[in-house]
Amino acid sequence: MRFGGSLLGYVGLPVEAKSGCFVKLDSNENFFVDADFLRLVFAEALRDVDLRLYDPGVMAELREALGRYVGVSGGCVCVGSGAEHLIDFVVQSFLGVGDNVVCVVPSFFMYGKRVSLCGANVVDVPLREDLSLDVDAVLAKCNDRTRLVFVCSPNNPTGNEFGWGEVEALADGCSAHIVVDEAYAEFGDGSMCSRAVDKENAVVVRTFSKAFGLAGLLFGYLVANEGLASGLSEVVPYTVGTVVARFVERLLDRRDVVDGWIRRVKEEREKLIRELRSIGGVEVFDSKATFVTFKPEMDARMTGKIFRVFGWFLTCF
Predict the structure, then answer these.
(1) Less CB within 10 Å around the terminal CB: N or C of the chain?
(2) pLDDT (tens digit, 9 = 90+) per residue, 74-112?
(3) Within 10 Å of residue 171's Cβ, how many Cβ atoms?
(4) Does residue 100 contact residue 121 with C-beta atoms inside 8 Å?
(5) Is-contact 112 103, C-beta < 8 A?
(6) Model pTM?
(7) pLDDT grade, residue 6 (50/70/90)?
(8) Confidence band, pLDDT 50/70/90 cuts, at residue 296
(9) Phi, psi of 284, deg, nearest 5
(10) CB neighbour list of residue 114: distance below 8 Å, 6 or more residues apart
(11) How far is CA 83 from the centre of its chain?
(12) How far is CA 160 from CA 20, 157, 163, 248, 281, in A?
């Protein structure tokens, strides 16, 4: 069985598709990350942990480390087993049957799926033609039953980044919680975390699956005002194991290495944009993520040129 827009669709892949015969790009995994380096750091973390014991202090230390990373108090951080887990956690915490959620589209398909499981209603608001966020249109769709508004920045799949001013206008303009998905924030111009903590109804969700290359580990965290973040942390206090916590702390101490991976992605992204723009008849949008959105004139000649560019790009791996 295939599930549209779901990772479950890969269950039936033949063995050769999983063993490195081609580069799978559609999940936006980060192949610039050094897998051997990650294994080494993980082994170091494992040696420091007694797996027989609970460690009540490790979560507090992890939240403090993450807080330093994004410039907020550790009390404003809540951790979880990946960004999707935290999105689901927020959805379950705020939604009931018949509630409304506004989703900016096109964007990450998982928001709507999680909302539907709660019996709530999804209201889609499209981006403008230039892919900018239509704040007035979003607010026009909010009412007294609207509990959440999902915004992804940098946005998946368009790659563009929205500003804090737009998110703040949403937070000030309605009573719903504004959930900002910053999965690709390290590849953009910055994070909204330090400003979001000053709002009562702003939540920022982040992940280690992209910039840190931990798609196979599933670690994420959210940032919100201290009352909200602490309350959510108390509801589910043990969402991350001690080994994962210590591993993440060690990676945060090696920001020099991680920053190098991020720089390489940005460099290759700009090369790809330049090559695509060199093809006449292709509109290429600026990107702050790990992918590029473009709109070609679809004829056989144009398609061939685009595939040649992607063939060049994949040699970078």
Answers:
(1) N
(2) 999 999 999 999 999 999 999 999 999 999 999 999 999
(3) 23
(4) yes
(5) yes
(6) 0.88
(7) very low
(8) confident
(9) -115, 125
(10) 84, 87, 88, 91
(11) 7
(12) 30, 9, 10, 28, 21
Residue type, 16: E
DSSP string, the chain: ---TTSGGGGTT--HHHHTTSS---TT---TTS-HHHHHHHHHHHHHT--TTS--HHHHHHHHHHHHHHHTS-GGGEEEESSHHHHHHHHHHHH--TT-EEEEEES--THHHHHHHHTTPEEEEEEPPTTS---HHHHHHT--TTEEEEEEESS-TTT-----HHHHHHHHHH-SSEEEEE-TTGGGTT--SHHHHTTSTTEEEEEESSSTT--TTT--EEEE--HHHHHHHHHHS---S-HHHHHHHHHHHHTHHHHHHHHHHHHHHHHHHHHHHHTSTTEEE---SSSS--EEE--SHHHHHHHHHHHHHHHTT-
151 φ/ψ angles, rounded to the nearest 5 degrees: -135, 130
Residue with tokens 């006449």: 280
Which tokens is 269 given?
């992204």
